[in-house]
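Handoff note, outgoing to incoming analyst
You'll be picking up this chain. Sequence as last confirmed:
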Amino acid sequence: MSSAIIPLKISQLALLISQRKHIPINAALGYIYDSPFYKQLYNDEAKWWYLDTESLYRQLELSWEGKGKDVKNNVVVFLSFCIEHYAQRHGMTSLQAYALFRQYGVDAYLVNGFDVLHTQGEETIMHDIELYIRNRKERLL
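Most recent structure output, in case you need it:
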C-alpha cells in the first residue's frame, strides 16, 4: 500500500517545499531524499503516508533540525576539506564531488570515521576516498 501512495505524497511535498523555500522542484526533491525523514515514509508501523502534506512538511523540517546538531564544526571542516581537495584532484567542481560523495556514501564514511581519518595526511585521505568509491562501484555492478 505504502509504495503506491508514497510517490504521490513526495510529489505534493516537493511542490510545497518548492513554493515555501523558493527553490526549484529538483532541489526540493533533493531536500526530501537527503533527509532523515525520507526513510520514515516507508516505515509500515509509523504509517506516515496517511498524513496530509502540511503535517509531512512539519515532520520533514523537524528531522532536519536534529540532523546537523550532532555533527561538530571540526567534522564539517574536515568533510569540506575532503570535498574541495577531491574536486581539485579530479578536475571537477565541488558540487560534482559532493554529489559523488553522496552517491557512494563517502560523506557518511568520512563523518563516521572522522576520529581516525582526520589524523592522516592529505594524500592518504584522498587515496582512502578513491579506494572507498572504487569498492562501492564494484559492489553496485
